[in-house]
Amino acid sequence: MESLIKFVQDEFVTKKEFPKFNAGDTITVYYEIKEGAKTRTQFFRGVVIQIKGEGSSQTFTIRKMSGTVGVERIFPINLPALQKVEINKRGKVRQSRIYYFRELTGKKARIKERRFK
């Protein structure tokens, strides 16, 4: 049964190419919003908390602070409304799911930047 589901996903679901990102990275996601007959592009910039799933059913969670309130949003990787993903900063974290980031505030909520040689 799993192979049948995987076959259907590979054949019929259109794949979009996005840059590779991990937990701890700060990214900007541009997505389309429909309001009546109009469509507009909105962006959501935040830190990637987790990446879950594999293949076409993969999702990623982004967290940002809006004033003093934390806002999280889950995006499916194959959402038709997704237009592009930009990586603003690569973060250096030890875990692939950084749920502890939710409780941190102020200077403790900073993530070190990953340097490439």
From TrEMBL:
This protein is located at the 30S-50S ribosomal subunit interface and may play a role in the structure and function of the aminoacyl-tRNA binding site. SUPFAM superfamilies: Translation proteins SH3-like domain (SSF50104). InterPro entries: Ribosomal_bL19, Ribosomal_bL19_sf, Translation_prot_SH3-like_sf. The gene is rplS. This is Large ribosomal subunit protein bL19. Keywords: Ribonucleoprotein, Ribosomal protein. It comes from Mesonia mobilis. The keyword Magnesium does not apply. It holds the Pfam family Ribosomal_L19. One of its GO terms (cellular component) is ribosome. Belongs to the bacterial ribosomal protein bL19 family. The keyword Glycosyltransferase does not apply.
